[in-house]
Batch of 4 targets.
Target 1
Amino acid sequence: MKKAVIFLPLLASAFLVNPAMAKDHPGKEYIEKNGYQGPSTCEECHPDTAKKFLDTVHWKHASKVANVENIDPKQEYGMKNRIYTFCNGNDIVNNLKETPPNEKGKTKLTGCNTCHPGDPGDQLHGVGSSGPAAESSIDCLVCHSSDYDYSKRKPMKNEKGQVIMGQDRSVKAALAVGKPSVKNCMTCHETAGGGAYIKRGFVFTKENDVHAAKGMVCVDCHKTKDHKIPTGFDPNNWASDGSRLACADCHGNKPHKDAYINNHTARIACQTCHIPRTGGAFSKDFTTWTKMADGFYEPTTLKKEANETTPAYAWFNGTVANTPHFIGPKGSRKDKKSKIYPFKIYQAKAFYNKVNGQLLSMDFAQPMATGNTLAGVASAAKTLGIKKYEPVAGWQTIYFASSHLVTKTKAFSCENCHAPNGVLNFKALGYTDKEVIKLTNPSIFFTDFVKKQKEKEEW
Amino acid sequence: MKKRVSVVGLVVIVALAVVSLSSIASADEIKMVGVITKIDIAGKDAKTATVTLKDNKTEQSITLIVNDELTLDKFKDHRIVEGDEIRCKYEIRDGKNISTYFRKTAGC
């Protein structure tokens, strides 16, 4: 009854609101009057949302994964528990904690969620936790407020000495709620992997992406339902909320005016022509960390700016090859479900277990403080219950999908690929010598190109 | 007279060298890593900010002018705050240090 008393006037006000006030959140008056207490305030109008949110990838950092080989389809996988060489740690071994002192006697509060607090909770209840306490710890505003004070979203110790993530639960932030903006998403997603644009190597700005230039925001493509967010297929990104998105969802299978360009869409992914650039980290060494000026250490990283490098191309049918030394796309020319996609190739050195050949995980607290990477391996092994191990350095190659930095004006044209030493290595992609000769000669596009060129010149 | 001419010539040469060297320095991009000690930004609509960094290597304070929208937005909502370590590049234009690259060093 109490909820109905509050809810009905709010609902009425939502419909009666005049156009000038259309941008105001209908719950504005309620929040002004009652303050903001976290999810319980949101749930006055959005009941059961918190409980449902606990079943999403943004909370769990994991899901069942059906498209990756060599894993158990009944188990859930994601940043929560994966061991791979982009992070080398995960939420389990790198939960929020205080490092040992470094040589200057300083400590740091660290953990996966200090870099990318993708799990919008206070971290006290752990990634993937459930129950009323977990529900009440959700930080709704970090994704929904356009006036969030990010200085409050940092690791700190509570009165019990536990390391938690702070939140901005101010009325000011709560009064600015709405659809997540690019900034809400990119605050976490641009800094994943240890720094700005490191992991995926893209920026979502009008200068770098045609969708951003049109004023679109992330959730215009990643259309969310019940906080479940669709994603594309990516050899590196395993967890999903069960729904997928693709360029064709909006653009269809014949997106071009020219039929001869549309002929490509059966076997060439849109990204291949429309995302000619990539960037970010292309290599890391987790066995030897680099000492920084503040006396702490970081994984040694080779990186480029977003948009600074070129991708590699491979067939991909949405399924993923997964071995200790390789995570990449599966697919072939013969497989009709496969298309040629662009990828960022990333290679990293880390410790493997000589006993079974598996990649070992690393707790970052010890190497961050002292540079002792084997101490980090030992700590992670203890956490994961691995008793028998012998660390040896080895390399892993990972293919990252390249799905942003979309361009219309700088997209590849016929001559970029259909030329000797062009963008695509047709031979490596499975074409015969005879086909390669045909595919790398202007004769296959000459007539159409002349027509197009004439149209351009005529205006 | 001859001596006076050569002194004047020397002064001119030195002056030209100074001017030419300073113009080279102005065109160069200077790189540094340092910790923010002060951010001055005038409200939500500010189009510029003045930031003071303490250079990790020299421990000297450097004041930079930051004009790029993305970084200004990060000052406004406190994604970048005093105490953060920054990797930056700047150019000297009209005697002012103008930031051309401003990123948190960030770690794992």
Note: The interface with chain A takes residues 33, 56-57, 70, 73, 77-79, 81, 85, 103-108 of chain B (CB under 8 Å).
Target 2
Amino acid sequence: MRIRVSPLILLVILVPSLAMAAIDEVTVQLKWIHQAQFAGFYTADREGSYQREGIDVTFLPGGVGIDVVSGISRGDVDFAVMGADSMLVARSRGIPLIAIATLYRINPFVLVAFADSGIHSPYDFVGRTVAITEGYNHIQFEMMMNQLDIGMTSINIIPYTYDDTAFLQGDVDVTVSFAAGSLLSLRQKTGDRPLRLFWPDDFGVHFYADTLVVHEQLAADRPDLVLRFLRATLAGHLRALQEPESAIDATMDYAHLQDRSLQYEMLRASIPLIHTGYDRIGWMRPEVWLDMAALLFDHDLLTEPIDVDAAFTLDFLKAVYEEDD
Amino acid sequence: MRFWIRLTLLFVLVGLFPLLLLGLFSYRGGKDALIEEARSHALSISVLKEDALLEWMEGNAALLESVAARPLVVRLTEQLIHAKRGSDAWETAYQELLSDHLLPNRLSGIKDLSILHPATGQVLTSTNPVVEGTFRESEPFFLHGREQVFIDQPRYYVSQERLQIHIAAPIRLSEAAAIGVLTCHLDLEELGRIVRLTSGSHTSQDIYLINLSAMFVTEPKFGKGFVAHRMLNTVGADRVLARERGVEVYDDYRGIAVIGAFRWIESLSLGLLVETDWVEVVQPIRRLANVLIAGGAFMGVLVLLVAVVFGRSSVRPIHRFIAGTAEVGRGNLNFRFPIRGHGEVAQLGLSLNHMTENLEAITTSRDALNREVRARTAAEARLQETVSALRASETQFRLLTDASPVGVFIFQDMILKYVNPAFEIIFGYRPDELVDRLSLMDLTHPDNRQHAHEYISHCLAGTKDLPPFSYTGVRKDGDSIFCEALATSIDYNGAPALLGTIVDVTWRRQAETELRLKNRVYEGSIAANSIMDVDGVIRHVNPSFLRLWGYERDEEAVGKPISAFLADSDEATSFLNSLQEEGEWTGDFTALRQDGSTFISNGHASVILSDANELLGYQSANLDVTEQRLATTRLRRAKEITDSIIESLPGVFYQISKEGRFIRWNGTLEHVTGYSSDEISKMHPLDFFRDEDVDNIEEAIRRVYTHGRAEAVAGFINRWQESTPYLFTGALRTIDEVPYLIGMGTDISELKEIELQLRRSMDELTRSNQDLEQFAYVASHDLQEPLRMVASYTQLLEKRYKEQLDEDARDFIHYAVDGANRMQRLINDLLTYSRVQTRGRPFDVLDLNRALGIARANLASAINDSSSVVTHDELPSVYGDESQLVSLFQNLISNAIKFRGEHPPRIHLHTDEGADMWKISVADNGIGIHPDFHDRIFEIFQRLHTRSEYPGTGIGLALCRRIVERHGGNITVESSEGQGTTFRFTLPKLDKEAS
């Protein structure tokens, strides 16, 4: 179902006092455990952005065994942060979710080799051992090789075990890593020995990562709430980019057990993924959504071709940024 | 505060104030000059930096363009693209391009020269091996670089882990499409160096660039790792991103106050900020301020010392003078103040000495005064003897006046000195309350006191033959009495006094007043009064009588018999007989005026008897009652007409009292209900209703008394308990100050039947509309989704398999996508059209000027692109749906732009005020419409031109007509080919809508 909300959003803009008459309690399911990956949300909370929008927010951490999709499809949570790929797959299974903004517009998924390994480009992967995770990352890798016309059979692919020992010992030539996560600890382990990174984004494989998702029903019934929540969330992300130190303070309110300096590094690594310099924070491009859907369909992850236009809406983003302009 | 301290403070103030003022002005002046200089400096640096940046960027772009234009580069690129990767031809082209053309041009500032495939955006060869094989297919520099030289916005590249500004130039054979794209990115460190390089004298000067999102593009002086990882949040950033240029004082990214110049460089989409610490700018003037403060403090101490010494020496002689006056105060009259010099204190000393000498002399003459007092006491004793002699004479006078019935008084020095008992009785006082206590004025009414004063003055002056003075006196109990007084001047106890008499004339005055009033009543009465003798001859008449019977003077009426005043003279005899028998007579008669005209008079006459019961004559009082008698007749006739109207009314009529009693009703009520007149008079209105109708009618009756009127529909129950639907109306009417409910009930059985049929039709229509809406929804949703999928996946097909498809296949794909998009637009338009009625918002008062403003804003780019000029008269406010009226204006204006002629469109909105409607016209100078087509253009999907001539679905004007008609207006067109077009539409005026 295509959500048409613009007139209602206009109403909300024109009569903000009406929209904010009562406090709305909102629950947000995060994609992973509390960490700097979600610093923008924590900053919005700490600086009162949600409060100013009349929203009392609760963040639920994700983790192993927590199914983000079923939480939002059952209506247990109002908003969820999930991969754009997960959302498209859920949609093809008839779960009416809709993306309202993409927070990580560059996917942190990256392939890593030592700079002195003789691997200068993906063409050099041929005949080498590459450790890669199953699932969506595997698909992106396959697409990347396809773009370069490199046969998958020419590469020795082994599953990534979330342990970099084999790579550090030279048993694996290329390993998968995540820019705002495992790459930080990998760099600590490799010390001064330089690494070379290969980003699927550079090879025509554009895959949005952390995306803010709502149930279509909520977007249709409470467009005012969705708009206010998005407005506050984007304000929090902007503040986190302007003041990373205080964003880490906000993060530590939630991520008590994490190492502060590591969280700071994580945030610094995230900043270019959140905001590349093009477009506004959270903005989405229709052609990227179509590419993602086509790729997932190619790999039989979508049960049938979906109406990609209906999977995301720019209405809320436009409303937020038109207010600014 | 002591005088010498005040004096000291004054000296300090006078000495230091000019010094402080001078210092302050110097400081302020110097500071302003420094700030102004820093502002100008920052501004000029920003201008110079912008020039330097543009020069550097454009130089690099020119270099790239020249490399791309080399024939050898073009040929080798063509070879690289078409040869198989790894083949000899490919290897040769790859190596030659790299070694001969790309690597030698890696000049300072230019990095990663690369050649990209024109279709896929893949990097074919590059001076940076790492980027080889990567894809740039969606980057603006690639997409634009295929057409022309293009400098992109800075963007962060995760693979390079840095922000880069890309420049791209097409590689092509003459004007043909690009066969490759040559790109490079600029070294931002070099850019940073160019930006930071200054000859400024301020060590804190900081110059840096930010991008559209306030992200640092070059490293600021006091930040590390800010580029691409930090967004600027300062006033300077806000101003520069608002595309402004200027200088301001604000806190920078460190939170330190700076004087910052900001400048937006449009062509590079970069913001330039030049900032200098405020503290450093004002440093020189702070040193001056320190010198001024130190000098000021020294001068202050010096002035204070001088002031203390001077102050103390000035007050010393004053202290000595104070000690001298204290000595005199203690009684030492021999003390003399020592005189030194000629100053003010010496003058004061001389005065003190003089005063002391005088004081000594006064003390000596006190004894002579005591002797004078004793001589005066002896003279007073002799005076007492003379007074005793006078008192003996006064006793004789009192014996005489005590017996007088007239009030006698002696009045001296505005107080009563003597009154006799008659005086006391007249005014109701006891003797001891008057003499030596009250004045004659106290016994005179305040209104007469002025005259009393004048009279007393005349008497005392000895004026002869004064008449008695009549005035109103006031008794002790407050009653007013009329008095007449007479007085003369006498010598009493050696001083002038008044001896006078007072008589109470109240009873006489009252009798006179009563007579005058009676006469005035008789003469002034509006009744025509007359007095006749025993023979019925008129002896006296009043002015009303003369007026009523048309006589001018008494003599004309007096002496005539009563019969002369009656139309029927025979009546006079029976009138007199009746009077003699009954003693009085009351009734109407026809009176005859002097001019022969008649009138109806109502009169009352009675006999006048003497004390001995002897008949003296008759008196009569008459009024002209002609009008009243005529009005009564008219009223009776009007009632007869009203009665017949009420009886002939088709419904039931009723007049009901507030207590619920039927006062008046028509025969229809009896006929319809079957109740008799007697029965109705005993019934309550609610007896004719049952169930919930009882409450409805009770409420309606209540509303008549609270709101003035009401109506209700209810079943009217007759005596056989049959119910008939009736519409009852009621209004509050006051008759003889008593409120009544008056109204009528009408049988609405037939109307009810019609309403029922109408409701069935409406239900049918609503269902039909819902079906239509459902169809519109199906059209929008179920048709649009597959259409979008056709379009999306056909595009994907083209993108994925572009290389495998030939030109025809690409054309077919283009047609398919175009067709799908067109159909989508048609469906959307159809939906919009159908929703004008079904999804329109409720009407509200809105300003058409605002609606037009929104429409113009929506069309801003079309208006600008076509150089259109849109003008309008002041538009009115109307009652309507704003979004639809915006759509109306938008369609009419975009129509005018679309069908423009050779000249830039000129569109004018004109307003005319009609009686009930606003007439608004939208006139343009476009290609016009042939009159044959004027009817067709408002039909849905009717087009006068092919799609290739003018794009569109042909729904715009149909939509306009539907919107105008929903608002209760109509739309017409006036046009002929080549003469422009004027659309005219009407909208109801506000007051009409309100009514």
Note: The first helix of chain B runs from residue 3 to 69.
Target 3
Amino acid sequence: MKALLAALVRAVTGVRVGVIDGRPGERSRIYFANHSSHLDALVFWAALPEPWRERLRPAAAADYWGKTRLRRWVSEKVLNAVLIERLAPSRERDPLAGLMAVLNAGGDILIFPEGTRQPDGVMRDFKPGLFHLIRRMPEVDLVPVYLENLCRILPKGEFLPLPLMGAVRLGQVVPGLKEGEAKEVFLQRMRLAVGELGGNG
Amino acid sequence: MDTQLLILFGAVFALLSAGSLTTWILMRRREGEPGAVLLNLRSRCNAWWVMAAVFAMTLVIGKTGTFGFYALLSFLALREFITLNPTPRGDHRTLAWVFFVILPLQYLFAWAPWYGMFQIWIPVYAFVLIPVRSALAGETEGFLSRCAKIQWGVLTCVYFLSHLPMLLYLPIPGYEGQNAKLLFFLVMVTQMSDVLQYVFGKLYGKRKLAPKVSPSKTWEGLIGGGLAATGLGAALSFATPFTPWQAAAMAGLLVLTGFLGGLVMSAVKRSLQAKDWGHGIPGHGGVLDRLDSILFSAPVFFHVVGFYFGDSMARVYPMPDWLSRVLMPFSQ
């Protein structure tokens, strides 16, 4: 059922990730990607080879993915997502706790450090969540991901996806937080790692 | 089944076997790692087997299957075309209409068949709808070129290509029920013309024909490959409504229009800074890289054959009754 859905998403968007370095589960991974469409997490999930797909738990905004029954079904049953509270008043708990639990249990996560979808597909500055995660969990791998054309397939504010071709560009593992590296410097380095995959700095 | 069609399929089978065998021998004789050219040749050969099998199957399973297949090809081609053309958000709804309404209806009118509507659905109705929907979306930047790009994509990938299965309906006195072979003739001659031009160009090519638009095209390739493909067309005349000389002339027309179609699509591709239209067919690139020569030859061939050998399509295929009941429910 899940494999079928993944194959369908791959067929519609034409995305595929080939060989991935390393073995699944050797080290937990934080995939971090640009964000331009509601399809991003679904397409990335579908593009991964099956053993990697099984381990993935994407971060998803609770205010969107928890809203209707269909979205809840997709995010919980298909994507196995970790719902994150983005809205300030309900952020009593540590917002990163859910993601850290996944990493501690040996799983991989996908986050979108821009925080929200960019309507024109141009990347914005990264929010500090990624920095706090890697500072608290230095032994996980950081993998940049560039998602191409998905903002044309399903832009912000549209409900009908177009059958255009997208692409998932998976980068190499990048070095984690360096000794004494400032937050802004680290976030900028991560943003460049994603941008380079898309052919722009 | 038509025995002539079986002979044609057999010939394709023999041709592909010869190609695969040659590639296999070349790979065996070479020591060490096979070069990029050989690897490309092998994946091209393998892809040809699949394409030939699919094409043969559509001719056998009948009209509905054939029209469904070409609707899918149009869809894949248009998808590659629009993906390479960076359309802004303002065109999202317009493109939804193009993919989900305009394209399926063109093939519905073709399959029905309602010849009059098949002819005007895209050049009149769709071409009115496309700029109107984009204007309503309210984005004015690059408006004219955005509309023109979408219209050009629909015209070539959908309208032109839909003339290919329409050959099945072309009424030719004395050739009733055999039109599948006409479709075969077009596809065989156009594709072999491409292959032979490539082969002659590699063997004897010196003078570049259009270095900027398509660097691999040479005069030697065009003339050598074109003459060989014309000869092939003449040899296939037994399965067509043409005499050998007429078949040679029609094949020559396919060579010329196929070459020009390929040249134009290559210019379009290069204006978009791309080398291939996509990566759907291993060794070949995208669907459009294989179809580019057919896009122009299909409508021209359809009308020239119709003019010299056929009956008037408009008279033979007026609006079908079931469609008139849908569109004019209150008239008697």
Note: Residues 138 and 166 of chain A are 32 Å apart (CA to CA).
Target 4
Amino acid sequence: MRSLLQFAALVAASLAIAVTCALSGASYYYSSQHGQGCSSCHEMAVYGAGMHGSAHRNGTCLDCHEASLATKLRHIRVHLTRTWPETIRLRESDVFAMTPNCQKCHQQEYASWHAGPHAATYTQIFTNAGQNSRQHLMDDCLRCHGAHFNGAVRDLVQPQNEQGPWRLVRSDLANQPTIPCQACHQVHSHGTPQTRPAARISVGDEPIPDSLAFYDRREGEHFAVAALALPVLHEGARMVSVSPDPRSALCYQCHAPRPPDTGTPAALNGWGSQAGSGDDRTPTGVHEGLSCLSCHGGHNQNARASCKNCHPRMSNCGLDVEKMDTTYADAKSPHNIHWAHCEDCHQHGIPARENAPASPLHGALAGN
Amino acid sequence: MSSRGKTGTLTRRQLLSGAALGGVSLTIGCRLGRSSAWEFLSDEQARTLAALCDQVVPADDFPSASQAGVLDYIDRQLARVYRRHRAAYSDGLVRLDTLSRTRFGRGIAALSVDLQFQAVTAFAEQDKSFFELVRNHTLEGYYGSPRHGGNRDAVSWRMLGLAEPPIRGRAPYDLTKGSTS
């Protein structure tokens, strides 16, 4: 009996040592060599190769990805049973675990994002009484808010009506961001690490981050901004000049115009999508052609002090542009800064320019 | 205790050492397995298939089949829903390479684009059913949904003038307008 107990104890101790060695060894192995260990499982090779070609190539998998004991065991199980999916994607829990890791290196960007509207939580977005009483909750909400959520909107918030009160079915998501870093950034996208510019004062265009991409919930894939379309927009019958800035193509995925509503002049005349329809905020009028990023910060969308980027302190009229009657100065102003026209201020006629040819833009505007 | 068991069986030290060794072996065991980046294809098969697929959809202003991820698509499907085609691919790619070596002295992956075209043209006549199979799978991968591995960045849809993802405003279910949809 005693020898049997000794044998059982030995077997148990052996198993414990084997598991300890395997786990600690695996942790070391898979976290070393900048992720080459992870890539040695061939289902991960393509993702490892992507990381090694990205701006994050100097990091390791575990710098960003959560790797708890449970996660490691799940990976081992999936690998040994060969049950990995056709395309390996991050789960919502993986994304939420990664967000604080982004902060470790990108502290300024993280703080900026956290202070802005894109850091809105699931509670703020999906239990908003003002919104839910006006518009049905629908799966399409998840296209931009909670794109990584693995389920339908009914799995997230109840009741599905316009009376409420609304509560999150997934209470664990209450304080999680609906637009995390990965909504607009593809960490594995091809790119190079940032380096010190050759010239002390760069005169080139602002570089477009290699990682900028839209996470398309339907495909479960990121699409780089260079692959995203810019809209064709009209103001009445006139085609609007849309900024060619590819970064704004990312904004348009959510701040998108809608086809003309039935019965409107635009629908009756076949003019196409109108600037300012839906959630679109494409500038028309005096600011036409500007990119979203000309005024708004990329992470917190703040437009504070953006006027000074282009305007002198005083306008040609001797007015302080920041104090003119627009929504920049007062959100209740009837003159939305996005589509303020010359005639909004020059209500008795637009004065002709002195010693300068008439602007084609003015001509087009005058024709409307 | 001596290093040998009393009855010639495993000693405690041997058992513990073996367990530790087993753990380490388990850790590095994956390294000894196949190192190909593909799930089903070998690297050599992938090179041959890439040459074939790129003759079906060559590069112009837009990427070729292999550049657009068609090989990823075919490889992933051969590991899943197209398991039934595995033998056809294994045998067919050997036949293609054999034809290339017989006629041009090298495997098709090593030929110039013009010679690859000649080799594939001859192969399409000689081995019509396999060529048709690969052609269909190539077109599936090139024009299908990116979620299946091909059509990288929806490149073929952009080639066709389709915006992907489309720019679409949120669905206009505005209750204040009396809509009940």
Note: Chain B is about 50% helix and 0% strand.
